[in-house]
Model the fold of this input.
Amino acid sequence: MKFGRVLLTVLVALTLQMALARYAVGGRWVFDLVLVAVVYGAVLWGPAAGMWIGTIGGLMQDALSENVIGVGGFAKTVVGFGVGVLGEQFMVARPLARAGAVAAATVVHRLIVVGLWAIADQDWRGVAWTAMLMETSLNATAGLAAFHLTQMLPGAVRHTREGRRSPLSRRRW
Amino acid sequence: MGSTRRTLVLFLVLSFAHLLLMSVQMQARSGVPLFQAGAFGVFAGIQRVMAGISDGGRSVWANYIALRGVAAENDVLQKRVLSLEGQVQTQAAIVSQTRALEQLLTLQQSLVAPTLAARVIAGDPAPGAFVITIDRGSADGVEPNMAVLGHAGVIGRVINRPTARAAQVQLLIGHNAGAGGVTETSEAVGVVKGGAGDPPLEMAYVDLLKDVQVGERVLTSGLDGIFPRGFVIGTIERVVKGSGVYREIAVRPAVNFSNIHVVLVMLARPARAEGGS
Done:
């Protein structure tokens, strides 16, 4: 596991999350791109990477919002570990299976967060099922796009390189 | 095998650290200011750049490409400006009359606090946080607990310590947010709280004896010492006779929280109303 890769993933996910959420504050469009990054890291690089992305990303989210620091971090660490371990046991190679993993991780993550809030506030806020359904769908779509893009990217780069004509000096006549 | 054990140990260590962190805060409820401030400082800078890029793109689109129907819209807006100018003059006349009456009655003048326009540069860092970031901070005179308003009504208040060029705003619809409210017609006083589902605001502690009607507007009461009196919070959508001595009132916010791009920060805090708590 390369730590720089983990930090970069967290940074990109959190920046995108805050930049895109600017257009959907308090609305029905609920998504969590940091959670998508956790599943992404756990599936591609294993449980340790998933856990670190979850810990760092979750703690950063907690620090930037008004939540108790550690709630998001704990939930995402658990998700990163769980997805990573399951990803090692089962084949999660197809994009749809990976999107399904993101969807399942979203539900588990939300339930852990709601449970921890209930303990922290001594008050059961309840589960907003519509918002959870929206978050699950959007996260799964974002995960599908992320996995698809990373699968396409190496091929696209190679294709571009191969398609590029060599300079005149190097060209064989 | 060794790798699996190492991963498991790492998981246990990280989980324990998180639980420890949470339990410390639940006892002290003071958070970790240094970590929060550091994280906010770093991400405010990044988000300022991101917002600049996205606003630049939108500006190019809006100002150079999507100009269909602008002439017609301009005509409509010019008429609207004329009408609003007339209304402003009427209001100015009313204000001067009120000031004169206040002087006559030797009342304390109701101060209108200066405001500062700010651009929203970042949204919710985590779903359900209901916190936004604006591009004005301590260098512009923004302080914690200052009221933040939109064109339609109350948006929220500044939380935490702002950095020099950015501040966080807790939206009124958030779980831990609230404001003193008063109904416009029946003058029932209560506390408007966020996180209520649909609609996202509820007005609590309203006396059962008050005849509160659906459709009535809820305004800020000024009793909380944050929001000045008289700003629109929302409209009453549902009134239920509660189990205790209070009514249960659901309030639809006046502000469309899913479409906030520019806000106004009230730079001075209102004087706490007499008898307020």
Notes: Residues 129-163 of chain A form the longest helix (35 residues). The mean pLDDT of chain A is 84. The helical segments of chain A are 3-21, 33-45, 47-64, 71-89, 95-121, 129-163.
